[in-house]
Q: What sequence folds into this?
């Protein structure tokens, strides 16, 4: 804001004048001006005069020479010395003339005149015209008459006249100069007051304002010139300053009030670290009644380590030259307090740093709250992460906001990778859940469990998803709880299956028992009928004779009337019924047969042989056309199981496979059955797969149900797979599953535990 | 001495004015020298040196020169050796603008115009202005001032 005032000029005189008072300045200016004007005028005038005089002198001299030469022509022509001298004598009236000489055509002196009376004539000059010497002027003029050279005139004149003239004129000039200077001095001394008096008046007022800061003073000077304007500007400036002064005072008071009433500690230090200003809060905090804070340094006020901490920070701020923030630990009576200190350098308009200001705020409570909050958050995070369920927080748009550890395991994405993305981007299978999220938020009601099932790593996974709306703090969002219920679903399914089997088993056992007796009678009766019409039996012949007929007649009659065929049909049907009953009994019966160590590959080979013999034209399958692929793991350990039961299971599966292949109408490639044996996790896995038509998804859920069959009525009992399932799951504590193969085919997987644990063993004995 | 006399005579030309028609019609000044080869030579030497716009023609005259020739000259120099011819010549040129010069004492009395004589170591001259004026010849004041004696209107 400080605009510089023009500095003293580099001209010496102006520099000299610079420190004069206005009065003296005005005087000096006027004197210098008039003197310079006078001197210039005088010099110019004298110069002009001397030039004029000089030219006049020369002109006079040449006209004199002309006259003399005209007059002396006769004397020269006829060499009359007397006449010549008379002519020259006429020059004595010219004061400045010193001598004159006439030379004839031959250069001899004809006549000569000297003012001093001497007769020494000068020599003939070798030049013509005018020559000026120090105080003389010489004129050499050749004289011609009608082109004929008659002689030469030499005039010798003094220039002292000129010198006298110049001296006189300078003298007059000097007198004039002195006179005019005196008059100028007198006049200007009197007139300068017109300018200097009001300026001095203004200066006095200024001085008073400056010395006592009395901004209410006003200049009363009034005129229409620049000084009047200056006075009024000055007055308006004073008004402005007075106004600003008031404002400044007010704002200073305001600032002081703010500084003193803030809860922060505010202070100002000079470059040596001495306190220039501290607010009330500072005094309250530092509590030094004994020491004066202002002017003291940190070292004098605080313990050495604390003072060191403060001054290190100060030094950093001064070095950085800008605001820096830092937390500072300060011991108080009630323990250590944390302050956040903002320190910044104060600069002069030139940019030079002259002080350091600091504002320190006690943030101890906030700090503690922060720590508590952080601990609480960590605790909650831990709680959420330790949940066995995957918990996924989403906002109203479905963007993920929280993602616990279980969710990371579920998706394979870490929390930072998932947060902020849409739920259906991270977990596409949860797409339908977004609607539930919306519903949960809008209805503020928990959306109950929804099960989803998907294939993962060769098995079915079942998830149960519950959506809880977040209602607290007006934050819209929801939490999805995802529970893995695969195991529960499996157990449930198994229980349902077992329950079904058990009930069917009980029913079947009763039924079989009841049917077995009449069936036995029927079969026995049919056998008896066949035997008693047989011609081979002697007893039949004897009875026939008694009845006057022959057995052959009766036989042929029976044959012709197809009765024997009918009887055979009865026998076959009876045998089938008996087999069903036997199966049913087996289904329900707890096997008492002992377990024995079995070599599985051997057992399977044995079963294959058995199946090959079961060739049945009517059933249209031919085991000999089917390629059997065996993939056995080497060194399979022997397994404890009931050989006949497992053999029955294998036979059943192989037959089913062969039948399925046979039923297939169109075929790609040769018919195949693959048998795979392997061990995993203390169990043996037996896989029997075919490349037949496969099992539809709908049927797959029911294949293990009793009496469920896809075969035409009469060709299957619908119990084969049910019995197999019972044998595997119930009698051997294993697992039996079915899958469809791509592009076609079915796969049955049987998992049997290698060792029977105590629990199952115990259960078995019940 | 003869040389100075020749020079004087020559310088008379500078201060002498002939009737206007004579000089303009001829364009040159004819000097007649009577029976003196030395003078002729001196005059020729002088006239060759001079730078005047007037052309000088030097004519040697015999004792029996015809009056026409005499009258055609503007200046007639009759040396003292031929003083016996003076009267005859003067009679022939009387009334014509011919400046007659000689160096005898009685030349002016005989009716001549300028006579040269020796005074101490210098040559001086006298003028019969009456005769000259009668012949239409005038002299400059400077020349008149230099003359030792001037015959005015014949009553000297």
A:
């Amino acid at each position: 804001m400080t605009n510089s005032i023009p500095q003293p000029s580099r001209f010496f005189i102006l520099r000299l004048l610079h420190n004069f008072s206005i009065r003296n300045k005005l005087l000096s200016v006027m004197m210098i001006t008039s003197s310079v004007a006078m001197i210039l005028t005088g010099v110019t005038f004298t110069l002009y005069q001397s030039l004029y005089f000089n030219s006049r002198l020369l002109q006079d001299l040449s006209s004199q020479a002309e006259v003399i030469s005209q007059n002396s022509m006769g004397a020269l022509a006829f060499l009359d010395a007397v006449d010549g001298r008379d002519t020259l004598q006429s020059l004595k009236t010219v004061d400045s003339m010193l001598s004159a000489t006439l030379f004839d055509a031959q250069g001899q002196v004809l006549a000569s005149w000297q003012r001093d009376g001497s007769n020494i004539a000068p020599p003939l000059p070798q030049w013509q015209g005018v020559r000026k010497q120090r105080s003389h002027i010489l004129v050499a003029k050749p004289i011609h008459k009608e082109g004929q050279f008659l002689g030469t005139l030499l005039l010798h004149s003094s220039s002292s006249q000129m010198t006298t003239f110049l001296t006189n004129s300078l003298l007059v000039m000097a007198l004039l100069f002195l006179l005019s200077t005196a008059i100028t001095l007198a006049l200007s001394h009197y007139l300068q007051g017109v300018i200097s008096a009001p300026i001095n008046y203004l200066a006095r007022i200024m001085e008073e304002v400056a010395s006592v800061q009395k901004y209410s003073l006003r200049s009363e000077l009034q005129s229409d010139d620049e000084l009047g304007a200056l006075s009024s500007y000055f007055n308006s400036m004073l008004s402005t300053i007075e106004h600003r002064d008031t404002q400044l005072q007010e704002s200073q008071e305001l600032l002081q009030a703010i500084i003193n009433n803030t809860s922060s500690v505010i202070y100002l230090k000079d470059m040596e670290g001495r306190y220039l200003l501290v607010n009330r809060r500072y005094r309250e905090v530092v509590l030094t009644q004994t020491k004066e804070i202002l002017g003291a340094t940190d070292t004098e006020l605080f313990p050495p380590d604390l003072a060191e901490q403060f001054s290190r920070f100060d030094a950093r701020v001064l070095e950085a030259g800008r605001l820096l923030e830092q937390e500072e630990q300060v011991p108080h009576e009630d323990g250590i307090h944390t302050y956040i200190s903002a320190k910044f350098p104060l600069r002069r308009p030139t940019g030079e740093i002259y002080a350091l200001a600091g504002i320190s705020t006690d943030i101890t409570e906030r700090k503690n709250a922060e720590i508590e909050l952080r601990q609480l958050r960590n605790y909650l995070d831990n709680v959420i992460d330790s949940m066995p369920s995957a918990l996924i927080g989403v906002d109203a748009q479905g963007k993920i906001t929280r993602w616990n550890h279980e969710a990371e395991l579920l998706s394979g994405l870490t929390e930072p990778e998932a947060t902020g993305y849409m739920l259906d981007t991270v977990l596409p299978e949860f797409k339908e859940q977004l609607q539930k999220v919306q519903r949960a938020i809008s209805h503020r009601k928990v959306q109950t469990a929804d099960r989803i099932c998907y294939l993962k790593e060769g098995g079915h996974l079942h998830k149960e998803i519950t959506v809880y709306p977040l209602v607290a703090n007006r934050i819209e969002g929801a939490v999805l709880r995802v529970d893995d219920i695969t195991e529960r679903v499996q157990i449930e399914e198994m229980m349902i299956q077992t329950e079904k089997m058990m009930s069917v088993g009980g029913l079947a056992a009763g039924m079989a028992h009841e049917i077995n007796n009449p069936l036995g009678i029927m079969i026995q009766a049919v056998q008896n009928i066949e035997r008693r019409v047989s011609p081979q039996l002697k007893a039949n012949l004897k009875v026939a004779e008694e009845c006057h007929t022959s057995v052959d007649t009766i036989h042929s009659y029976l044959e012709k009337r197809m009765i024997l065929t009918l009887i055979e049909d009865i026998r076959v049907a009876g045998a089938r019924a008996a087999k069903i009953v036997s199966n049913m009994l087996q289904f329900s019966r707890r096997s008492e047969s002992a377990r024995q160590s079995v070599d599985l590959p051997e057992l399977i080979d044995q079963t294959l042989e058995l199946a090959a013999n079961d060739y049945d034209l009517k059933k249209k399958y031919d085991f000999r056309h089917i390629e059997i692929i065996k993939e056995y793991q080497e060194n399979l350990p022997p397994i404890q199981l009931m050989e006949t039961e497992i053999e029955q299971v294998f036979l059943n599966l192989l037959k089913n496979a062969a039948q399925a292949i046979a039923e297939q109408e169109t075929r790609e490639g040769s018919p195949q059955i693959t048998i795979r044996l392997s061990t995993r996790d203390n169990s043996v896995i037996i896989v029997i797969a075919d490349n037949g038509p496969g099992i539809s998804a709908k049927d797959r859920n029911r294949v293990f149900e009793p009496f469920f069959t896809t075969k035409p009525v009469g060709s299957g009992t619908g119990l084969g797979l049910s019995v197999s399932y019972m044998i595997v799951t119930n009698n051997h504590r294993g697992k039996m599953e079915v899958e469809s193969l791509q592009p076609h085919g079915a796969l049955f997987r049987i998992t049997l535990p290698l060792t029977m644990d105590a629990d199952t063993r115990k259960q078995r004995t019940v | 001495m003869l040389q100075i006399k020749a020079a004087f005579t020559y310088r008379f030309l500078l201060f002498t004015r002939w009737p206007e028609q004579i000089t303009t019609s001829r364009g040159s000044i004819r000097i007649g020298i009577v029976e003196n080869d030395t003078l002729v030579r001196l005059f020729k030497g002088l006239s060759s040196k001079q730078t005047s716009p007037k052309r000088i023609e030097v004519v040697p005259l015999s004792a029996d020169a015809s009056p026409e020739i005499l009258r055609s000259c503007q200046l007639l120099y009759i040396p003292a050796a031929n003083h016996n011819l003076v009267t005859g010549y003067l009679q022939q040129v009387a009334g014509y603008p011919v400046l007659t010069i000689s160096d005898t004492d009685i030349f002016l009395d005989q009716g001549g115009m300028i006579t040269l004589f020796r005074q101490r170591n210098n040559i001086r001259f006298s003028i019969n202005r009456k005769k000259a004026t009668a012949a239409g010849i005038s002299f400059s004041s400077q020349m008149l001032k230099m003359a030792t004696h001037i015959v005015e209107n014949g009553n000297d």
